[in-house]
Amino acid sequence: MTAPELDILRLLVLVGELGSISQAAAVLGMTQPSASKRLSTVERRLGLVLIDRTRRGSALTPDGRVIVGRAHRVLGELAGLLDGAEALRTRHEAGLRIAASMTLAEHLVPGWIGELNRANPGLRLGLEVTNSDQVAELARSGKVDLGFVESPGALPGLTSWKVAVDRLVVVVSGGHPWARDRRPLTAAELASTPLVVREPGSGTRETVDTALRKAGLGPVKPLLELGSASAVRNAVVAGAGPAVISALDVTDHGLVPVEVEGVDFGRTMRAVWPEGRRLAGPAAELLALAVRRSSRG
């Protein structure tokens, strides 16, 4: 059995609403003879009489009312599909979805998106701030157009591009013994000291663990695990204990940097997007802008 075309379903619905084939045909821009012929054809295909045709007008038969009830659902689903597709098209044409890990979101991404918005005043832009693991997952699943991460590890399923460099710094409060000790810490001293750290999945936490492992030591020992860079910073200022944070977070917060020997805390910050996908439009513009700003200093 061949399924009826969508315009025949619309015609049937209108006949039921208007009680007239000619009026229903006029609404759809058809002639009355063409509409009658198409309705007769669909009745033959379905093996059902759908319309009672009389001199006073046309009315749906009981079978016709069942078919029209189902046609309403089909046409409603189609309208929802088309509305959803239009929303996606509009979002891709005039919007940009970004996710960024916290250090990038606090210090670098606002400047990049500000410059992008000045060049594209009508651009709608959304930024989600979370840790590097979650940013990578959002990018991998296509829930954002572009992500920015600070973790050093492999990123399966993603293409990445360097957008900035950063280094981590051991910091303590002014009252901590390390603030008064002029000699550098050893890597072993740092590794054996419980630290205020970010949660697992954070790029900063992963960078610290990776650096300690490269120095032949175990991962960091958590004193406190906190969910944001500002929470870690505030805990250090309050005297909770040492932490390793981005150099971008140290300025003007009353923190004392402590030198460490034998550990490389440098890291590369990267833009990420799904492997095999070519960046275009505002996402490509933002990546180019971030790389350009990084190259200037």
UniProtKB/TrEMBL annotation:
Q: HTH lysR-type domain spans which residues?
A: 4-61
InterPro entries referenced in this protein's UniProt entry, alphabetically: LysR_HTH_N, LysR_subst-bd, WH-like_DNA-bd_sf, WH_DNA-bd_sf
Segment forming the signal sequence: none
**Name of the protein in its database record:** LysR family transcriptional regulator
Concerning Pfam families, the annotation shows: HTH_1 (PF00126), LysR_substrate (PF03466)
Q: Which SUPFAM superfamilies match?
A: Periplasmic binding protein-like II, Winged helix' DNA-binding domain
Q: Which UniProt keywords apply?
A: DNA-binding, Transcription, Transcription regulation
UniProt family annotation: Belongs to the LysR transcriptional regulatory family.
